[in-house]
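Posting here for the record, re: dioxothiomolybdenum(VI) ion.
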Amino acid sequence: MTEQAAAPLQPRSMGTSTIRLDGRLKVSGAAPYAVEHPADAPPLHAWLVQSTVARGRVSALDAQQALAHPGVVSVLDHTNAPRLEDTSNGELAILQDARVGFRGQIVAVVLAETLETAREGAALVRVTYQAEEHAAELRVDNATYRPDSVNPDMDTDTDEGDVEAALAGADVVVDETYRTPYEHNSPMEPHALVATWDDAGEGTVLDLVDSTQGVHGVVSALAPMLGLEPGQVRVRAPHVGGGFGSKGEPHSHEMAAALAARTTGGRPVSLAVTRQQMFALTGYRTATISRFRLGARSDGTLLAIDHQVFEQTSAIREYAEQTASPTRMMYAAPDRRTSHRLAVLDVAVPSWMRAPGEMPGMFAHETAMDELAVACGVDPIVLRELNEPATDPETGKPFNNRRLLDCLHRGAQRFGWSGRPAGARASADGEWWVGTGVASATYPMMVQPGNSARVRSLDGGRYSVAIGAVDIGTGAWTVLTQIAADALDVDPAAIELEIGDSSLPAATVAGGSSGTSSWGGAIVAASQLFRNDHGDSPDPGVETTASAAEDPVAEEYALHSFGAVFAEARVHRYTGEVRVPRLLGVYSVGRVINPLTARSQFLGGLTMGLSAALFEESYRDARFGHIVTQDLATYHVATHADVTGVEAEWLDEEDYVATPMGSRGIGEIGIVGTSAAVANATYHATGLRVRELPLTADRFLP
Ligand code: MOS
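Prediction output follows.
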């Protein structure tokens, strides 16, 4: 692969509010989602049969009645499903043996002529289990397993200086435990795909039209397990109705569809996970318990930070959330320690959910900071000014562009922070206590290696720009077109973007807020090399494929984005109901490439943080091991009536250390700190400190 150093890109289309290029298709219902994709032949429909025990073995599986049901074509289970070549991924290696690792795991797949008959057939499959004792409850005393690293590959523990001595010598100590619940990503479009297996000819054997955040990631996960070369698997995802991380890596339903398709003689298999099944099968955020200790001088200057995280993983596959990662770089303190310990449970595999690590970790950290501000009698913004580090406390590197204080100051001005009563329970409006709170936000800036883009000249001064990126609803179709236009110095209308297909040049996942940075860098590199090689008026049909060379300058810096979140909370004196009439986020994220789609990302992140603050909680019944709140009636997500007065703005800046576009990522930072800002506002309103999400009404009643 040709590597090209990408030169800084001057903005022309970048920075303008270009409307979504896929907007008309979407609002008119013409954008095909995964299972709406027209298949070559009428598909068979798959329905999943899920285990009803949390741990044990399938001792017998009787498919006779199901197979006798009109329309049912076949039933796959561990006795007759195609064998996998590699079963090391315990989440994806389904139907290979009789073991059951969690309640809700796929134990059979029913294929039928219609969705209805598939479902009826699944209800007729009789499964008998030999149940074993299971563990499904996260506690501090069973979270004792120390993983080798935490997501994605960070240190499990850090320890600098002598935290215990510093805490012993501190004037003020905050020592509290903060909890966040299990949460489910709940994107609008359920996880779904159409799979076709055709090994008659050369080339593609397995073809998937999938709802995923990364087409190449699905290929690289599934191909070796199925004994296929990467080039024999093609994955397309032209439009995706959200994912929030839950479509960042393939889950077992994708393997179920692939295995099923292998048995149908070439007929496509359509599989849509139901909303209820999503609560068992397609990823979620682990609950977290954070023991947080801050030691400070009486004026609020931090001396020690200690963050001990207790959370859970699954016995069938490890996932360790990096909850203490923001604690390592957020504030100055000479003595500091972080750790992660896991309970290994017989439960579904936790995975990414918008800002894994930063979201639960910063709820703990920013609530603890608010408690320290109260204990020291200093304003929470002044406390953060006092503890602003000169360099990254974790690595010692200079920050590329740390403007946390600018965000706090701009937010304070816009929100009307000055004149805020220092004490809690100081303001009321009728039967409502009224308070305000603030929290910091941060998210690392990441560029993933392994992206390349292809630029080809077309007739009439037009250009095809291709990369296997995925637009999960964020605006990638639009923003990548803007970047390509500026990189080729043409109008966006001259760009024909191709994305969402693994047959295009390699692209990494729409995750870690790294998509635009990683894909955009490749587009800039390929475009600049194309101009070098072919000039300003190339013949139609010439093309250049290139990836961006790693930028050695970026290595010298700690690359992060920052933000400040302000919330007003009203807590009802008699019912404990919490409302948030005002929520403001101010962000430092480098250049904003498209203010229209960026605003959606920030408002969406803030809304998701508000939703986490007030409502979201997946309740696991440890006696049976599954999540019982398995629909949107019992798993509450904020609705329009809950979301009022949410505003976002950003600092006018550019960051060419981060990317040639001058941008950093924006997808996740909006959720970070938001729940803490709301919780801090409820404390200011009521004088009651709630250290556990969500902030339900009962927590504010005597
Ligand atoms: Mo994001 S949770 O990295 O898709």
